[in-house]
Amino acid sequence: MTVGRRLYYNFVMRDPRNKDTTISVRVSGEEERAVRQYARRRRSSVSDVIRDAVRVLVDQPTKDHPYDDIADLIGSVTGLPSDLSERTGARFAEIVQEKAGRRR
């Protein structure tokens, strides 16, 4: 159950004959309109749209941290000074103090 996004998991019904499962989900009026409009544009059912969205969401690799978005770039730049990551905290503090001094 996700309260912030107004998604409520209500009910599950299984059909043993054909292995289908029905899940009831509560969405906001705006979310319902968006799904229905998208289904109409695709000439598809709301259920198909939701099934496809779940499939895409599950197939995506999870990215827990912003680092994951740029992990492939880390270490890909060559020719820079080797000490760029040294004293970063101290250098950042100096920059902040310089900017604070300029504002006065």
Structure description:
By secondary structure, this protein is of the alpha+beta class. Helix content is 47%, strand content 12%. It has 4 helices and 2 strands. Strands 1-2 form a two-stranded antiparallel sheet. A hairpin with a 6-residue loop joins strand 1 (8-14) and strand 2. Helix 1 packs across helix 2 (46-59). The protein is elongated.
Short note summarizing the structure:
47% of the residues lie in helices and 12% in strands. The chain has 104 residues and is α+β, with helices and mostly antiparallel strands.
Secondary structure layout plus pairing:
Elements: E1 8-14, E2 21-26, H1 29-42, H2 46-59, H3 66-70, H4 88-103
Antiparallel strand pairs: 1-2
Helix pairs in contact: 1-2
How would you describe this structure in keywords?
104 residues; two-stranded antiparallel sheet; 4 helices; alpha+beta
Tally of strands: 2
Order of strands, widest sheet: 1-2
> What share of residues is helical?
40-55%
What is the CA-CA span between the terminal residues? 50 Å
How is the main sheet built? 2 strands, antiparallel
Radius of gyration using CA atoms only: 25 Å
Number of helical segments?
4
Mean pLDDT: 81
